[in-house]
Amino acid sequence: MARLIYTAITSLDGYVVDAGGDFSWSAPDEEVHTFINDLERPTGTHLLGRRMYEVMSVWETMPTGPPTGDPDPDAVTRDFARLWQGADKVVYSSTLADVTAPRTRLEREFDPAAVRSLVASAERDVSIGGPTLARHAIRAGLVDEYHLFLTPIVIGGGVRSLPDDARVTLDLRDERRFAGGVVYLCYQATA
């Protein structure tokens, strides 16, 4: 059975982007990126809001084959590009005119019943990206797992990774500490 998974790289104080819009501090090193790639392998569909779609659009044209010139993404980057390009995407936006990426469709509003049905009928896991869109799924009780990467930085404000107005009981399922100080926590939502 497919799961709806929310993954976020956050500051220690719980933000995905600072008050000025910067998230460069969250770029994963090779060890963390490799781990993220392995987590993403079972994902068949990504649910994204407009901002996350725009941020992730770089992966649509990233080379996936062997190095052919300079500059060329490393093997870990190429691996993620292959995973991203091989998955379906659903973009939720009331402001985008259209989406241009392959395997991508546009939905005008987030419908919890439609998402529940999509996950129930999916053969592979479904990922929800971005805290604004995830907030809707969290409030509706749709998120099965939370994959959080705590980055060793305090940024003091910005966009929170989790909503302030939702209460969810979780069980810790996995944890890992990386050499660069990032800590991975996997939580499963309980009934």
Morphology call: globular
* Major sheet details: 8 strands, mixed
Strand order of the largest sheet: 5-4-3-6-1-7-10-9
- What percentage of residues falls in helices of 4 or more residues? 25-40%
CATH architecture title:
3-Layer(aba) Sandwich
Please provide the ordered H/E string of secondary-structure elements: EEHEHHEEHEHEEEE
Q: Which oligomeric state applies?
A: single chain
Gyration radius over CA: 16 Å
Number of H- or I-type helical stretches: 5
Number of strands: 10
Q: Count the domains.
A: 1
Please explain how this structure is put together:
This protein is α/β, with parallel strands linked by helices. It has one domain (4-62, 71-189): Dihydrofolate Reductase, subunit A (3-Layer(aba) Sandwich), CATH 3.40.430.10. The protein is 25% helix and 30% strand. The chain is built from five helices and ten strands, in the order ββαβααββαβαββββ. The protein has helices at residues 30-40, 50-56, 75-85, 112-121, 131-139; strands at residues 4-11, 15-18, 43-49, 88-92, 104-107, 125-129, 145-151, 158-160, 170-177, 183-189. The chain starts with a strand and ends with a strand. The mean pLDDT is 94.
